[in-house]
Each structure stands twice: as C-alpha cells, then as structure tokens.
Amino acid sequence: MLTTRMRRLACVSLVAVLAACGSAPVGPGFYRVERGDTLSKIARDNRQPVQNIVRWNNLSNPDSIEVGQVLRVAPPAGTATASTGSTRARSGAAVEPRATPAETAPAAPANAPPISLVWPAAGTVIHRFDGKNSKGIDIADSAGTPVVAAAAGTVVYAGNGLRGYGNLLIIKHNADYLTAYAHNRALLVKEGQTVQQGQKIAEMGDSDNDRVMLHFELRYDGRSIDPSRSLPPR
C-alpha cells in the first residue's frame, strides 16, 4: 500500500483534477474557490467580514480552503451577520490545490442531495475513510477482479498521469458528485464515455501500488466524503 506521505502527495494532483471536473455553476449566495484565492479576498469581494465566512461554513482553519470547494458567502435566512471589524484569522495564505491537512472526517454536508451507490468491486475493505490520510476506501481482492461504476455518469478522466494513483478513472455523476477508481490493472472505458451503474469499467490491479486493490473515492462539490455512507451494507 502507499505510504502516508505518498498518499498525501497524490491527493494534491487528484484534488486539482476533481476540482476542474466539478466546476459547475453554484447557486446565489455561494462561491466556488479558485486557484490563488484567499479567504480574505473572497470575503472582501463579497463584502463580508472574514469571520462571517468562517462561521457560515464551519471552517476550523481559515487557511484550509481548497480549490473547487463551495463556500457560502451570503447569510443563511434568519442569520445575523457579524460586524465588519478586524479578524485575527490567518486568512492571507494563497490557496493551492491540496488536500486539507488537518481535516476531520466529514460526512456529506447537510444540504447535500443523496446519491445511491453500488459497491465498485468485490473484496475486503482494508482501509476506511478518515478524511485525513485516507480520502476514500481501499478494497482488496485478486488481480482482474471487475471494477464497476458505482453510479451512472460520464467518464471525465481515464489515464495514469496522477502519481500515486496508477491507472485511474474519474466519473462525474451530476453537478455535485464525482467518484474515483485507482490502481486498476486495465481501464475499459474512455474519457467522454457514458456509463451505467454497475457497468464494468476496469479490472483491479496494483498499478502504482504494492498490492492488488481498488482505491475508491467519493467527492461532493470537490470535497472528499465518506463513500460508505452512500453504499449499501456489506
């Protein structure tokens, strides 16, 4: 399996790809973080104090916003706004496409529409999502085990250009959700291809890894969430 350091480095590239894939327009009162943004810049552009943005989005660390992350920049209905005083939050660091280093294991946001997934492969779950070192789940089985699409969607990435993920597929399911399938032995679908839920899309392997397994991730608005919450019991 990948070392923790390698996994974190690999997440840098994957976050950038997922953020680019998840660039659908956001609704009024929300903003999608772009490369080079800082929290203070976002607050200034939306005429809000930084502490309002921090509070509305439950940000434990103002420096940890990610490219592709969607932030609320207008007050929720019935919510009072903070005065436009100064804030001591360290909000001036430029945003880079990286994984959140101290992120606690997040569930899907409260306003996230549900998505029903099927298990992407047979096998034993050897690592579960924790939101820190593991941005998804790892399923181990024999080489060549079928890997299937967890939900219907469109293939937006098929290749091996992301270090630490081997032969990787990313499927966009709607404006909100993406899934990623890593370390495959073979990819059976191409970018731009529409796939159905349960359709075989790859074969399990050990590309860019030291054992045969599937690394599976679920992203909502560019942020990793626990896929097991959307999978049936096993």
TrEMBL record:
GO (cellular component) term, any one: cell outer membrane
Region of interest called Disordered, as start-end residue ranges on this chain: 77-110
Top-level taxon of origin: Bacteria
Example of a GO MF term: metalloendopeptidase activity
Gene3D superfamilies linked to this entry: Glucose Permease (Domain IIA), LysM domain
Keyword presence, Signal: yes
Keywords: Hydrolase, Signal
Cross-referenced PROSITE patterns: LYSM (PS51782), PROKAR_LIPOPROTEIN (PS51257)
Pfam families, A to Z: LysM, Peptidase_M23
TM region(s), chain numbering: none
Hydrolase among keywords: yes
SUPFAM superfamilies in UniProt: Duplicated hybrid motif (SSF51261)
Domain LysM: 29-73
Signal peptide (residue range): 1-26
Family assignment from sequence similarity: Belongs to the E.coli NlpD/Haemophilus LppB family.
PANTHER family: MUREIN HYDROLASE ACTIVATOR NLPD, PEPTIDASE-RELATED
Protein name (database record): Murein hydrolase activator NlpD
Protein source organism: Paraburkholderia solisilvae
Gene name per UniProt: nlpD_1
